[in-house]
Model the fold of this input.
Amino acid sequence: MPAQVIVLNGGSSSGKSGIARCLQTVLPGPWLALGTDTLVEALPPALRTAGDAAGDGIGFADDGEVSVGPAFRAVEAAWIGGVAAMARAGARIVVDEVFLGGAHSQRRWQRALGGLPVLWVGVRCEAAVAAGREIARGDRTAGMAAAQADLVHRGVTYDLEVDTTRTEAMECARTIAARVG
Amino acid sequence: MPAQVIVLNGGSSSGKSGIARCLQTVLPGPWLALGTDTLVEALPPALRTAGDAAGDGIGFADDGEVSVGPAFRAVEAAWIGGVAAMARAGARIVVDEVFLGGAHSQRRWQRALGGLPVLWVGVRCEAAVAAGREIARGDRTAGMAAAQADLVHRGVTYDLEVDTTRTEAMECARTIAARVG
Amino acid sequence: MPAQVIVLNGGSSSGKSGIARCLQTVLPGPWLALGTDTLVEALPPALRTAGDAAGDGIGFADDGEVSVGPAFRAVEAAWIGGVAAMARAGARIVVDEVFLGGAHSQRRWQRALGGLPVLWVGVRCEAAVAAGREIARGDRTAGMAAAQADLVHRGVTYDLEVDTTRTEAMECARTIAARVG
Amino acid sequence: MPAQVIVLNGGSSSGKSGIARCLQTVLPGPWLALGTDTLVEALPPALRTAGDAAGDGIGFADDGEVSVGPAFRAVEAAWIGGVAAMARAGARIVVDEVFLGGAHSQRRWQRALGGLPVLWVGVRCEAAVAAGREIARGDRTAGMAAAQADLVHRGVTYDLEVDTTRTEAMECARTIAARVG
Done:
């Protein structure tokens, strides 16, 4: 059964969004690209806090640590359920995610996507390289790439893994597309 | 029963997104802001076409006309269903929409949101003023504001209407918030 | 002698950039729009600091206070000189500025623009209205609009002033354009 | 004499802007990053035209061809002169450029920068790789990367060249920084 949802999990600046856009180009038929960034943009400012204290929402500390509180977790659960409902309604979706809670985050998505054909993809990038790309792109809090490079993969199981350290996003996308079925 | 979904419908540059952000600030508890822009950004480039011919996706012509094809309608239906599922899962959502099909577009949302407490809000702005703001913001195809100012309200029924022509987004948001219940 | 440089000075979220874009549309011939935002984007990240301490560069505190240090002042001086040189080389320029130092900031620009025909325009907006628009636009540190609304006009002299509190950007632009000569 | 201006020339999606941001991080002291994108953003909409005909300004055709007309050339000349004036006033500047006219474009900058210590850097990227990155970034007209990959280097002379095809932006930046003197 061909995958209808592709979940890309990787740290900040590992290249997930670029792979998602390439997948939209190389896969036949329309695929939506949704992810953590979509949700964070949809949040009220009060739940998107800079500075050290995450409090209730999602906090981006100066050193790149990201922490999440109960109010964020609640809207995230509804978000995940809604993305799953879009897939059940027939949409094909590339989900571009950062599993800050590792295996625990994956289980939340697994429960929501239960019964749907899903391709789980790990997007790796060496921490030092991701940190350099974070500086090059210039729109992210410095330190997020390094802080998340390994963290987000802890205990997560994948159907396949790609590594952007020395492989272009487009080539990673072709590898993934070949496994969609 | 207090509204759990607020649907803002209005033409391009009528001020919906600004009202949505103000609502997120003045309403108690977290509300997500999602809308047409979120969906358009999630689309594959092949469905987001510039130029005259919309073809299968959504097309933005040089004169500001927006046309949509069957492939866009299909993913849009899944999107609407997913947003409704997020609300059913407990999220409170401000939906920032452009009913290009007027009453027909509203019926699509009504069917999806059936059973949920929804506040339907018309966001009006005089065409000439919206056209001026379109130039002032500088990031939209010229002509969209004028083309959509009346079109999107045809046959649509509202719980309340606001008019941004001479009223600030924040004041509109307070008026809407007072009706959320 | 028709003005070749239009300096718009006003607080954050007072509507300067919108007026600048409208001026580019209503004025005959091409006018460049440059300003504080252009400079801030050109700065190295180390001079664009969030948090309380401005240090050497430009700092955006959580409460909306903006403070600038000696390294910022040095590059700003070169920037101002370069913008003046563009005008001397024949370009017509709308400068979109925030005179954090009031009259002192104006003198820096006056010295650089000496001999050029300049139209000095104050862009006013009531603090409460600007603060609401800051929330509506959603991309600025909360508090900047209120902190700067009066501050930036202290001791500054203008050829004309516009007030966006109850006047559209396009109408302000037409008023200004009528004075360009 | 240490370089005070670094001119990076390369095609669209060759990685110039990323290198510029990395340079701002690795070079001692503050360097401004300015370039073609800064100028294009400062242009009036009438000079920034989509579609096939460039007319007077700068035109981005659907196939990625970029063409420029006399009005664009006039403001560009003033812009180049102004950037040079910023350097003469003491600013250190990374110029991120696309020499659409090859050697002819370089001569324009050489004349303006005459007497200043300049480091001329060619930023290469294999056309196929740049085209893939153009898709991955998702914010550029498809085809620009391929159309410009070789074109912009015709007849241009460099102090050094970097190639981002298999080298990270940060590593290219370190190579360049080592030559700044």
Notes: DSSP finds seven helices and eight strands in chain C.
